[in-house]
Specification:
Blueprint (H helix, E strand, L loop, with lengths): L2 H5 L23 H25 L3 E8 L5 H8 L8 E5 L5 H4 L5 H5 L7 E5 L8 H4 L5 H20 L2 E9 L2 H13 L9 H6 L3 H14 L7 E5 L3 H17 L12 H46 L1
Parallel strand pairs: 1-3, 1-4, 2-3, 4-5
Helix pairs in contact: 2-11, 3-11
Bound molecules: adenosine monophosphate (AMP) and magnesium ion.
Length: 309
Protein backbone atom coordinates (compact mmCIF):
# COMPACT_ATOMS: atom_id res chain seq x y z
CA UNK A 1 0.00 0.00 0.00
CA UNK A 2 1.42 3.38 -0.94
CA UNK A 3 -0.21 5.19 1.93
CA UNK A 4 1.22 8.58 1.13
CA UNK A 5 -0.58 8.79 -2.22
CA UNK A 6 -3.69 6.96 -1.14
CA UNK A 7 -4.86 9.41 1.51
CA UNK A 8 -3.23 12.61 0.33
CA UNK A 9 -5.46 15.46 -0.87
CA UNK A 10 -4.32 16.62 -4.28
CA UNK A 11 -3.66 20.33 -4.63
CA UNK A 12 -6.75 22.31 -5.70
CA UNK A 13 -8.99 19.24 -5.72
CA UNK A 14 -12.59 19.43 -4.47
CA UNK A 15 -12.86 17.32 -1.33
CA UNK A 16 -16.18 15.61 -0.65
CA UNK A 17 -15.95 13.98 2.77
CA UNK A 18 -19.26 12.18 2.22
CA UNK A 19 -17.54 10.15 -0.48
CA UNK A 20 -14.57 9.12 1.64
CA UNK A 21 -15.25 5.95 3.60
CA UNK A 22 -14.57 6.58 7.30
CA UNK A 23 -14.78 2.85 7.99
CA UNK A 24 -12.08 1.86 5.47
CA UNK A 25 -9.74 -0.92 6.69
CA UNK A 26 -7.47 -1.52 3.70
CA UNK A 27 -6.58 -5.17 3.19
CA UNK A 28 -6.82 -5.98 6.89
CA UNK A 29 -9.43 -8.35 8.32
CA UNK A 30 -9.26 -6.63 11.66
CA UNK A 31 -7.15 -5.29 14.48
CA UNK A 32 -5.39 -8.61 15.19
CA UNK A 33 -3.78 -8.68 11.77
CA UNK A 34 -2.48 -5.14 12.22
CA UNK A 35 -0.74 -5.55 15.58
CA UNK A 36 2.53 -6.91 14.24
CA UNK A 37 2.65 -4.33 11.44
CA UNK A 38 2.09 -1.53 13.96
CA UNK A 39 4.90 -2.84 16.17
CA UNK A 40 7.31 -2.82 13.22
CA UNK A 41 6.24 0.69 12.26
CA UNK A 42 6.82 1.92 15.80
CA UNK A 43 10.26 0.34 15.83
CA UNK A 44 11.18 2.09 12.59
CA UNK A 45 9.69 5.42 13.70
CA UNK A 46 11.78 5.20 16.82
CA UNK A 47 14.97 4.64 14.78
CA UNK A 48 14.08 7.49 12.44
CA UNK A 49 13.55 9.88 15.32
CA UNK A 50 16.93 8.94 16.80
CA UNK A 51 18.52 9.74 13.43
CA UNK A 52 16.63 13.01 13.22
CA UNK A 53 17.79 14.07 16.66
CA UNK A 54 21.40 13.15 15.88
CA UNK A 55 21.44 14.94 12.52
CA UNK A 56 19.80 18.04 14.02
CA UNK A 57 18.81 19.16 10.54
CA UNK A 58 15.18 18.28 9.81
CA UNK A 59 12.12 19.79 11.47
CA UNK A 60 8.76 17.99 11.58
CA UNK A 61 5.41 19.59 12.31
CA UNK A 62 2.44 17.23 12.55
CA UNK A 63 -1.00 18.84 12.56
CA UNK A 64 -3.97 16.86 13.91
CA UNK A 65 -7.52 17.98 13.28
CA UNK A 66 -10.79 16.12 13.77
CA UNK A 67 -14.39 16.48 14.78
CA UNK A 68 -15.02 16.01 18.52
CA UNK A 69 -14.46 12.36 19.38
CA UNK A 70 -12.41 11.93 16.22
CA UNK A 71 -9.48 10.39 18.12
CA UNK A 72 -6.82 13.09 18.34
CA UNK A 73 -5.90 12.11 21.89
CA UNK A 74 -5.75 8.40 21.06
CA UNK A 75 -3.62 9.06 18.01
CA UNK A 76 -1.17 11.04 20.08
CA UNK A 77 -1.02 8.29 22.70
CA UNK A 78 -0.51 5.43 20.25
CA UNK A 79 1.54 6.93 17.44
CA UNK A 80 3.85 9.01 19.56
CA UNK A 81 4.70 6.24 21.99
CA UNK A 82 7.38 5.34 19.45
CA UNK A 83 9.19 8.59 20.10
CA UNK A 84 11.61 9.76 22.74
CA UNK A 85 10.04 12.72 24.60
CA UNK A 86 13.43 14.43 24.59
CA UNK A 87 12.92 15.72 21.05
CA UNK A 88 9.19 15.53 20.64
CA UNK A 89 6.35 17.59 22.09
CA UNK A 90 2.61 18.12 21.79
CA UNK A 91 0.92 21.50 21.79
CA UNK A 92 -2.84 21.76 22.20
CA UNK A 93 -4.76 24.80 21.03
CA UNK A 94 -7.88 25.66 22.99
CA UNK A 95 -10.22 28.66 22.94
CA UNK A 96 -7.76 31.57 22.65
CA UNK A 97 -6.89 33.44 25.85
CA UNK A 98 -7.34 37.21 26.14
CA UNK A 99 -3.61 37.59 25.49
CA UNK A 100 -3.81 35.40 22.37
CA UNK A 101 -6.88 37.24 21.10
CA UNK A 102 -5.01 40.53 21.47
CA UNK A 103 -2.58 39.27 18.79
CA UNK A 104 -3.04 38.02 15.24
CA UNK A 105 -4.35 34.43 15.12
CA UNK A 106 -1.02 32.99 13.93
CA UNK A 107 0.96 34.46 16.83
CA UNK A 108 0.34 31.59 19.24
CA UNK A 109 0.88 29.09 16.45
CA UNK A 110 4.21 30.41 15.22
CA UNK A 111 5.59 30.50 18.76
CA UNK A 112 4.92 26.77 19.11
CA UNK A 113 6.58 25.54 15.90
CA UNK A 114 9.46 23.07 16.29
CA UNK A 115 13.19 23.73 16.05
CA UNK A 116 15.78 21.67 14.19
CA UNK A 117 15.92 18.01 15.20
CA UNK A 118 12.52 18.26 16.84
CA UNK A 119 9.01 16.93 16.20
CA UNK A 120 5.99 18.93 17.34
CA UNK A 121 2.45 17.61 17.17
CA UNK A 122 -0.35 20.17 17.10
CA UNK A 123 -3.55 18.96 18.78
CA UNK A 124 -5.82 21.39 16.88
CA UNK A 125 -4.11 24.27 15.16
CA UNK A 126 -4.45 27.49 13.15
CA UNK A 127 -7.11 25.61 11.13
CA UNK A 128 -9.56 26.22 13.99
CA UNK A 129 -9.54 29.81 12.72
CA UNK A 130 -11.29 28.66 9.55
CA UNK A 131 -13.35 25.92 11.27
CA UNK A 132 -14.99 26.71 14.64
CA UNK A 133 -14.46 30.42 13.97
CA UNK A 134 -16.27 30.13 10.65
CA UNK A 135 -19.05 27.84 11.83
CA UNK A 136 -19.87 30.10 14.79
CA UNK A 137 -19.30 33.42 13.02
CA UNK A 138 -16.67 34.45 15.56
CA UNK A 139 -15.25 36.85 12.96
CA UNK A 140 -16.93 38.23 9.80
CA UNK A 141 -16.90 36.15 6.61
CA UNK A 142 -14.47 38.46 4.81
CA UNK A 143 -11.98 37.96 7.67
CA UNK A 144 -12.04 34.14 7.80
CA UNK A 145 -12.23 33.80 4.01
CA UNK A 146 -8.88 35.61 3.65
CA UNK A 147 -7.26 33.16 6.03
CA UNK A 148 -6.85 30.25 3.60
CA UNK A 149 -4.32 32.33 1.69
CA UNK A 150 -2.72 33.61 4.87
CA UNK A 151 -2.36 30.06 6.19
CA UNK A 152 -0.86 28.88 2.90
CA UNK A 153 1.68 31.70 2.98
CA UNK A 154 2.53 30.99 6.62
CA UNK A 155 3.07 27.29 5.94
CA UNK A 156 5.05 28.08 2.78
CA UNK A 157 7.35 30.26 4.89
CA UNK A 158 7.87 27.49 7.44
CA UNK A 159 8.58 24.99 4.65
CA UNK A 160 11.03 27.37 2.97
CA UNK A 161 12.90 27.55 6.27
CA UNK A 162 13.21 23.76 6.38
CA UNK A 163 10.10 22.55 8.22
CA UNK A 164 8.31 19.47 6.90
CA UNK A 165 4.61 19.85 7.56
CA UNK A 166 2.23 16.88 7.58
CA UNK A 167 -1.45 17.45 8.31
CA UNK A 168 -3.94 14.75 9.27
CA UNK A 169 -7.71 15.02 9.33
CA UNK A 170 -9.10 12.08 11.28
CA UNK A 171 -12.28 11.26 9.41
CA UNK A 172 -15.10 9.64 11.40
CA UNK A 173 -18.77 9.58 10.46
CA UNK A 174 -21.63 11.07 12.47
CA UNK A 175 -22.84 7.70 13.79
CA UNK A 176 -19.36 6.79 15.01
CA UNK A 177 -19.15 10.11 16.85
CA UNK A 178 -22.39 9.40 18.73
CA UNK A 179 -21.20 5.85 19.48
CA UNK A 180 -17.99 7.22 20.99
CA UNK A 181 -19.83 9.85 23.06
CA UNK A 182 -22.11 7.03 24.26
CA UNK A 183 -19.13 4.86 25.22
CA UNK A 184 -17.66 7.72 27.22
CA UNK A 185 -20.74 7.71 29.47
CA UNK A 186 -19.78 4.22 30.66
CA UNK A 187 -15.98 4.47 30.74
CA UNK A 188 -14.76 5.93 34.06
CA UNK A 189 -11.45 7.10 32.55
CA UNK A 190 -13.28 9.01 29.81
CA UNK A 191 -16.26 10.47 31.64
CA UNK A 192 -14.33 13.64 32.41
CA UNK A 193 -14.24 14.39 28.68
CA UNK A 194 -18.02 14.58 28.30
CA UNK A 195 -19.49 18.01 27.76
CA UNK A 196 -22.98 19.05 26.75
CA UNK A 197 -21.34 21.18 24.05
CA UNK A 198 -20.12 18.01 22.32
CA UNK A 199 -23.76 17.04 21.78
CA UNK A 200 -25.01 20.51 20.85
CA UNK A 201 -22.13 20.90 18.37
CA UNK A 202 -23.51 17.87 16.53
CA UNK A 203 -26.22 20.19 15.21
CA UNK A 204 -23.44 21.91 13.27
CA UNK A 205 -22.03 18.66 11.85
CA UNK A 206 -22.75 19.59 8.22
CA UNK A 207 -21.37 23.12 8.65
CA UNK A 208 -18.16 21.68 10.11
CA UNK A 209 -17.85 19.13 7.32
CA UNK A 210 -18.26 21.90 4.77
CA UNK A 211 -15.67 24.07 6.55
CA UNK A 212 -13.29 21.08 6.62
CA UNK A 213 -13.86 20.39 2.95
CA UNK A 214 -12.92 23.95 2.05
CA UNK A 215 -9.80 23.97 4.23
CA UNK A 216 -8.70 20.58 2.89
CA UNK A 217 -9.35 21.66 -0.71
CA UNK A 218 -7.60 25.02 -0.46
CA UNK A 219 -4.65 24.23 1.80
CA UNK A 220 -3.07 20.99 0.58
CA UNK A 221 0.27 21.45 -1.18
CA UNK A 222 3.33 19.29 -1.70
CA UNK A 223 5.15 21.32 0.99
CA UNK A 224 2.26 20.92 3.48
CA UNK A 225 -0.10 18.15 2.40
CA UNK A 226 -3.39 17.22 4.03
CA UNK A 227 -4.16 13.55 4.54
CA UNK A 228 -7.72 12.43 5.18
CA UNK A 229 -7.38 9.35 7.38
CA UNK A 230 -10.27 6.89 7.68
CA UNK A 231 -10.61 6.88 11.46
CA UNK A 232 -13.71 4.92 12.46
CA UNK A 233 -11.34 2.02 13.13
CA UNK A 234 -8.81 3.32 15.62
CA UNK A 235 -6.20 0.65 14.78
CA UNK A 236 -6.41 1.47 11.06
CA UNK A 237 -6.08 5.18 11.78
CA UNK A 238 -2.92 4.56 13.84
CA UNK A 239 -1.48 2.29 11.19
CA UNK A 240 -2.07 4.76 8.34
CA UNK A 241 -0.64 7.71 10.27
CA UNK A 242 2.44 5.76 11.38
CA UNK A 243 3.00 4.58 7.82
CA UNK A 244 2.76 8.12 6.39
CA UNK A 245 5.09 9.51 9.05
CA UNK A 246 7.54 6.71 8.34
CA UNK A 247 7.45 7.29 4.57
CA UNK A 248 7.87 11.04 5.14
CA UNK A 249 10.89 10.62 7.41
CA UNK A 250 12.45 7.93 5.22
CA UNK A 251 12.33 10.29 2.24
CA UNK A 252 14.89 12.47 4.06
CA UNK A 253 17.53 9.74 3.66
CA UNK A 254 19.05 10.51 7.04
CA UNK A 255 22.40 9.23 8.27
CA UNK A 256 24.08 9.43 11.63
CA UNK A 257 26.65 12.25 11.43
CA UNK A 258 30.29 11.23 11.06
CA UNK A 259 32.02 11.17 14.46
CA UNK A 260 33.85 14.42 15.14
CA UNK A 261 36.79 12.63 16.76
CA UNK A 262 39.35 10.01 15.64
CA UNK A 263 37.85 6.84 17.16
CA UNK A 264 41.07 4.80 17.00
CA UNK A 265 42.94 7.62 18.69
CA UNK A 266 40.25 7.92 21.39
CA UNK A 267 40.37 4.17 22.08
CA UNK A 268 44.13 4.27 22.40
CA UNK A 269 44.19 7.42 24.49
CA UNK A 270 41.44 6.68 27.01
CA UNK A 271 40.73 2.96 26.87
CA UNK A 272 44.06 1.18 26.34
CA UNK A 273 44.49 0.34 30.04
CA UNK A 274 41.06 -1.20 30.29
CA UNK A 275 41.60 -3.03 27.00
CA UNK A 276 44.83 -4.53 28.31
CA UNK A 277 43.15 -5.62 31.53
CA UNK A 278 40.29 -7.08 29.56
CA UNK A 279 42.72 -8.75 27.15
CA UNK A 280 44.46 -10.37 30.09
CA UNK A 281 41.16 -11.45 31.57
CA UNK A 282 40.15 -13.02 28.26
CA UNK A 283 43.47 -14.90 28.07
CA UNK A 284 43.08 -16.22 31.63
CA UNK A 285 39.51 -17.28 30.88
CA UNK A 286 40.69 -19.11 27.75
CA UNK A 287 43.27 -21.10 29.73
CA UNK A 288 40.68 -22.01 32.36
CA UNK A 289 38.26 -23.16 29.63
CA UNK A 290 40.90 -25.37 28.01
CA UNK A 291 41.77 -26.90 31.37
CA UNK A 292 38.11 -27.55 32.18
CA UNK A 293 37.51 -29.09 28.76
CA UNK A 294 40.49 -31.41 29.25
CA UNK A 295 39.20 -32.34 32.68
CA UNK A 296 35.76 -33.32 31.27
CA UNK A 297 37.34 -35.41 28.54
CA UNK A 298 39.42 -37.20 31.15
CA UNK A 299 36.31 -37.95 33.26
CA UNK A 300 34.37 -39.22 30.22
CA UNK A 301 37.27 -41.47 29.27
CA UNK A 302 37.39 -42.72 32.83
CA UNK A 303 33.62 -43.49 32.79
CA UNK A 304 33.88 -45.39 29.55
CA UNK A 305 36.74 -47.37 30.93
CA UNK A 306 34.68 -48.31 33.96
CA UNK A 307 31.73 -49.36 31.84
CA UNK A 308 33.68 -51.62 29.51
CA UNK A 309 35.47 -53.36 32.33
P1 LIG B 1 -10.53 20.24 23.27
O1 LIG B 1 -9.66 20.01 22.09
O2 LIG B 1 -11.64 19.23 23.40
O3 LIG B 1 -9.79 20.44 24.54
O4 LIG B 1 -11.34 21.62 23.03
C1 LIG B 1 -10.70 22.79 22.69
C2 LIG B 1 -11.76 23.74 22.23
O5 LIG B 1 -11.11 24.95 21.82
C3 LIG B 1 -12.54 23.25 21.03
O6 LIG B 1 -13.90 23.38 21.24
C4 LIG B 1 -12.08 24.16 19.90
O7 LIG B 1 -13.05 24.38 18.94
C5 LIG B 1 -11.72 25.40 20.66
N1 LIG B 1 -10.77 26.25 19.90
C6 LIG B 1 -9.53 25.93 19.50
N2 LIG B 1 -9.00 26.93 18.79
C7 LIG B 1 -9.93 27.91 18.73
C8 LIG B 1 -9.97 29.19 18.12
N3 LIG B 1 -8.94 29.65 17.42
N4 LIG B 1 -11.08 29.92 18.29
C9 LIG B 1 -12.13 29.43 19.00
N5 LIG B 1 -12.16 28.24 19.60
C10 LIG B 1 -11.07 27.47 19.46
MG1 LIG C 1 -13.43 18.16 23.19
Amino acid sequence: MNTIDQFRIKTNSQVNLGKIEADFRGDYDGEEAAIEVQEKLNQRLSELQALMYAENMHVLLVVLQAMDGGGKDGTIRHVMEAWNPQSCNVVGFKVPTAEELAHDYLWRIHKATPRKGQITVFNRSHYEDVLVVRVHNLVPRDVWSRRYNEINNFERGLANSGTTIVKFFLHIDKEEQLRRFGDRLYEPDKQWKISEADYTEREYWDDYQQAYEEALSKCSFSYAPWYVIPANQKWFRNLAISQILMETMESWKMKFPEPSVDLVEMRKKYHSEVAEEQGLAVAVEAVVNVKQAKGKKGKKKGKRKNKSS
